[in-house]
Structures are given as structure tokens and as C-alpha cells.
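Name: Methylated-DNA--protein-cysteine methyltransferase
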Amino acid sequence: MTYLSLYQSPVGKLTLASDGENLTGLWMEGQKYFGSTLEPRTEMREDLEIFQSAGQWLDAYFSGGKPEISDLSLKPSGSGFRMEVWRILCGIPYGTVTTYGEIAKELAGKKGKKTMSAQAVGGAVGHNPISIIIPCHRVVGADGSLTGYAGGIDKKIQLLKLEGADLSGLYIPKNG
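Structure predicted for Methylated-DNA--protein-cysteine methyltransferase:
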């Protein structure tokens, strides 16, 4: 059973998912891959402690705070590769960005490989089931393009601005 809760945020309605103890999902309305890791049976349960904690975390975040990811019990569901990418995302500091290529280099180094595919990293980033908290919005193209955000480029920009990121070297690609 997966439990759901709704949170109204400055980037729109968010749907939170839990297994009863851990946060397993957080999606923006209309997000690509919305609910992709949900079990078939779901039930609305606004009263779960994890939803209260996640709501407080999100309140602090959207008020300009920098809450710690480790303050929440997260349990995203994905392959070993995706989980590794999501762990790296959790280490990107507020107000900064990194590239898919830099994450690929870091993973390659951890695995003792010379290279790793930035495109594969992009796929893992795009399938992050706990948006905002696992900060996939802090990843940009190597050329500074604001690309690849399942919640939409406008929301990616909004989140980066909220965090105080320097957007001067970044741009929206013509193809969206």
C-alpha cells in the first residue's frame, strides 16, 4: 500500500507518497513520470508523521531556508545505478549547479572506470521520484543549458532562483 498526501507549493500542487514510514515519492502536478514508482493500491493519508515532516521541510525550503535532506527518511525506488546518481544529487549544495557530465565523471571514478555516459546519468536524473528534496533541478547541460527537468524548465528556474543560484551563465535551449 502506498499512502498519498498533497502539498500546495509556490511551484504548484505536489503529490507526496509514502510506504507509511518513509517518503517514497514527490511529484509536481503534470510532471513527466508522475507517480512512476507508485504501487497500484494507494490511499490518501494526510496524517502520517513522514508527511508532517516533509511538509515542514518544504515550508522551510520555500521560505528560503536550507533544510537538510538527511532530516527526512527517504526511500526512493530504482535500480542500483539510479540510486547512485540520486545519492550524488543529494550532495549538490544549495544555490549551485553541476552537469550531467560531472556526475558521470564522479560515478566513473567511484567504479574505477575511465568514462561513463552522461546520457545514462540524464536518464537517472530525469526519473528521480522525489523531486525538489533530491535536487535534480541543480543539474544542467555542459554548455549551461537548462534542460532535462521533468517538472518543466520554468519550475527548474524558479527553484534555482529560490536557492539563490547564479543563472547568468545558463540559458533555455530553443528546443525547450
